[in-house]
Amino acid sequence: MQITKASIITIGDELLIGQVIDTNSAWMAQVLNKAGITVSRRVAVGDEWNAIWEALDQEMESADIILLTGGLGPTADDITKPLLCEYFGGKLVLNQGVLNHVTYLFEKVYNRPMIERNIKQAEVPDVCTVLHNANGTAPGMWFEKDRKILVSLPGVPFEMKGLMTAEVIPALLKKFSLPVILHRTLITAGIGESFLAERIKEFENSLPASIRLAYLPNYGMVRLRLSATGFEREELTAAIESKFTELQDMLADVLITNQDQSMEEVIADLLRSGHKTLATAESCTGGYIAHLLTAMPGSSKYFLGGIVSYDNQVKQDLLEVTPETLYTEGAVSEATVRQMVQGALKSIKTDYALAVSGIMGPDGGSDEKPVGTVWVAVGNSREIITQRFRFRFERRRNIELTAVNALNLLRKFIIDNTVSTIN
Questions:
Q1: Do residues 194 and 150 share a domain?
Q2: Which Gene3D superfamilies would you find in this protein's record (predicted)?
């Protein structure tokens, strides 16, 4: 089976020094994969002529499609356009269509005067096909050489995405006979990657050549992805669905979801389907769990609010944790998180509440309660359950692990209570 391979080159010194995180290539890879194009390499280079030229030479050797982002702005360090002009043996010419668009943006949208630098945005190599950038001034550019395609796109994410969606993907679909690529994903928790691999090794060995299994561990969970590639969609769909059902049945006891979802998306689905509401009471996570929940569209329907009780006085005043509990048991204790849940249910008046209190580090631990010790409680008006965790990482990761594990405990509690209500 002929595989169409793509390489993505992202350009910018800011990417190499960690000042900006490259989200462009991740998004582009997802879109290309859905179209049936395999991304074989992702490369980041700085704003340096020789480095970009060398990257182009290397990727033109191995890929059918090369996508570049960045370096198309109006400043001196934006060298992609003149470099591509020389690389493909052309010369820069003023494109009237691009100039009209740039003029419209500055006069009608930005309400700013045009200067020489802005006019230069309308200059393009005469050996490229211009791709209309509806969201900005830098056009996309499509080059072809030796049966290879190179597309240069702006680095601004929403401009790049607009061009990919409206111009690049439709053109690539016309240019290539692309296979179907299908994915099915499930997520497990409570079992390590190596134990999981041992448990399903016979299943993995039974997979046909057209289906591959990938392990993607993250924060105490393992995402398992089946990927199928071929040209017969119906046959491929039947094959991957059969194997995916088999995999789900084998892992029913550790399965969180049979969709490619985050934990907060799973919680959202459970609360929405049950028409239930949630409140949070956070100490060590400082509102991070509430942030995850409210990042979801429509979260106001099920998440009513949260209390960040970082200081003990706030725990007493807003959540009614007793001074005796804090004195005898401490802020990081089962008794404290139980009372935090009770206080959240009382003050915010929700169906469920979740509470966390812990020591995130790097300081604050003791022999009895070392750094990474966390107590979690979830409950409703009838029942509260708790669990202690001990994480061993740096502060940021401890916070993220606390959030995911707390939400997973909530997930189990909601499911158990839903089942018991039905019965």
A1: no
A2: CinA-like (3.90.950.20), MoaB/Mog-like domain (3.40.980.10)
**How many whole angstroms separate alpha carbon 176 and alpha carbon 23?**
26
Q: What is the mean pLDDT, run by run of 10 residues, along the chain of 423 residues?
A: 88 92 95 94 95 96 96 82 95 94 88 84 94 93 95 95 97 93 94 94 95 90 94 94 97 94 96 97 98 97 98 98 98 98 98 98 94 98 97 94 96 88 61
The torsion angle over the Cα atoms of residues 61, 63, 65 and 69, rounded to 10 degrees, is -80
Q: Which of 257, 277, 305 is the last residue of a domain?
A: 257
Q: Tell whether 138 and 270 lie within a shared domain.
A: no
By C-alpha distance, which of 96, 99, 80, 90 is closest to 144?
90
Length of the chain: 423
Which residue in 253, 282, 258 sits closest to 378, CA to CA?
Answer: 282
Residues 6+ apart with CB under 8 A from 372: 358, 359, 360, 361, 365, 389, 390, 391, 392, 393, 398
Domain residue limits at 208: 180-257
Measured CA to CA, the distance from residue 266 to residue 244 in angstroms comes to 19
Measuring CA to CA, how many Å separate 1 from each of 178, 180, 212, 232, 246?
A: 10, 11, 15, 12, 26
For residue 1, give both structure tokens. Answer: 């089976």
How far apart, in whole angstroms, are the C-alpha atoms of residue 164 and residue 133? 10
